[in-house]
Write a structure and sequence with these properties.
Layout (H helix, E strand, L loop, with lengths): L2 E7 L14 E2 L5 E6 L2 E6 L6 E4 L6 E6 L5 E6 L4 E5 L7 E5 L6 E6 L5 E6 L6 E5 L16 E6 L6 E6 L4 E5 L4 E6 L6 E6 L5 E6 L4 E5 L5 E4 L10 E6 L5 E6 L3 E6 L4 E7 L11 E7 L2 E6 L4 E5 L4 E6 L6 E6 L5 E5 L4 E4 L11 E2 L9 E7 L2 E6 L3 E6 L4 E8 L4 E6 L5 E5 L3 E4 L5 E5 L6 E6 L5 E6 L4 E5 L5 E5 L6 E6 L5 E6 L4 E5 L5 E6 L6 E6 L5 E6 L4 E5 L6 E4 L7 E6 L6 E7 L4 E6 L4
Antiparallel strand pairs: 1-55, 2-3, 3-4, 4-5, 6-7, 7-8, 8-9, 10-11, 11-12, 13-14, 14-15, 15-16, 17-18, 18-19, 19-20, 21-22, 22-23, 23-24, 25-26, 26-27, 27-28, 29-30, 30-31, 31-32, 33-34, 34-35, 35-36, 37-38, 38-39, 39-40, 41-42, 42-43, 43-44, 45-46, 46-47, 47-48, 49-50, 50-51, 51-52, 53-54, ...
Amino acid sequence: MAYIKKYTFAPLPQTNRGEAIKLGSDPKGKTFLYTNGKSVFIRDIENPTLATEYVGHSAQTTVARYSPSGYYIASGDINGNVRIWDTVNEDHLLKNEIKPISGKISDIAWDSESKRLIAVGEGKERFGHAFSFDTLSSTGEITGHSKVINSVSIRQQRPFRAVTASDDLTVTFYTGVPFKYSKSIKAHTRFVHAVQFSPDGSHFVSAGADGKIFLYEGQNGDLVHEFTEENSHTGGIFSVSWSPDSKQLISSSADSTVKLWDISSNKVVSTFDINTASNAVDNQQVGNLWQNDWLLSTSLSGEINYLDKSSGKISRTVDGHSKAITALSVSKDDTLFTGSYDGRVYSWDYGTEGGSTLAAPFLGQGHANQVTALVVKDTTLLSVGMDDIIRAGSTESKSFSDKAISTGALPGSIAVSNDKTTVVTTSENIQIYDGDLKKINQKDDLGYSPTAAAIDASGKYLIVGGKDNKARVYELSDLSLNKELSNNLGNISALAAHPTLPLVAVGDSVGKIFLYDLETGKPVVQSWVFHTARITSLDWSSCGLFLVSGGLDTHVYIWNREKPFKKVAIKNAHVDAVNSVRFLHNSEGLGVASVGQDAALRLWQVTKPE
């Protein structure tokens, strides 16, 4: 193999306001599960840097659950599909697939024998279905609800029982197997978000948007009592999880708190106040998990909070992107900087000694919209976003300054020369700034729409790509036109100037890359044509021998400038489009970082294409 995937730095869970998210528990206690985009992410609970990904779904995933045996995972998506796949093989081989309902899968539950499942969610004819793991045949009927079912739980002891929670304000109790309707319980006054059987099967609880939690008898579904206390939740409750000994419970609420309850005394033992995000709404708690001694709760921002039961405080917070990563840059010490669709910028100290590979948020006033491009020059990080702003920050303090420069139009790319002259292309013009971000030149009335920019190694030439299939070479000093590069057959979508020679790689919307000589304007390489969709990003290795490209086709290619027909292909590098690629500077061999629409950051070790 010409490459290996060294690391997948997983995104946070994907969240939606007003909806609970599901964290899946590992019966072996080592990992936990959640979904983002079309992927299911499996993260080590002790060291969440370690992650693997399942990519079998063709639609957005919504929930994933381990079987009690630990050998299989069932995952659902917004189209109503449930895929059952193994956890043993690295390829996660598909065991079975079913479409139990016609709409989004909200939750899945296994029985204790890992033989039967219940999937619930949105539907037309039905809102849930019970079926066999092997044959997919029906093992009962999930009836009694008139609206979407949000949660399901199966008693893990015989005689089996099941319980569901719905937007119709009811909790429905089923006997089994086969599972059949027993009764509806109308204790809640608003949507019921969660139900959960205790591990010993003696009780189950329900929690809802009315901020209430009710305890029920596990075998017959009779209401025991409501959890009432002066310091109970003041907002809707999205998630509940039992302790392994069935004596305690945690609840996560829109009031930005997690409460630890003692079942026997009906008392709150401790309250965890979550106020890690700058936006109060982002601190709403929408999902949780109690796995062995680990207590986790997830914020609406996607942050995963590790809760210390003994101190009543947050012991650790796992941060990162939850939306598509749209920009990437790498410093000389291989610290990675990423920007995303929602305007967030993070750093990853991958290359630094003793550095963490967990995301650290870039502090200060960031972007209010998608980050379009990032570039690192020495200790300065420059970024542009769809809020039409240029921002500068320090790579040492990991924070933005207060300086914000308005571009007056949508910025598409940013490039910086060795003397820190900065070029920003917008939808309307080319703007030139000095090292202090003071505008020193601007070129309007271009006659074309600029898309990308690069500055050659000498600082003499500025190359600007356009939507008219041409790249233009300007004198950087006065923005006078020097020549046009016109062999590309699609809109110019990516540029990369060679680090030492007067060469520029030009990628276009039809997946072709041409390498041009800036002095003659002639292409010197025309054989890099294997992408099947728009080139999204190009970058040269420090030695100038290799070029890496990423594309809308999900692939990454590494090309050899001196042997143009030699290449390394990383097919399906991301689930969706590859948005940016960069070479690492200090890795053995060729290290490549890539980011994409799946919100994941990946590092690859590549054998040189020779």
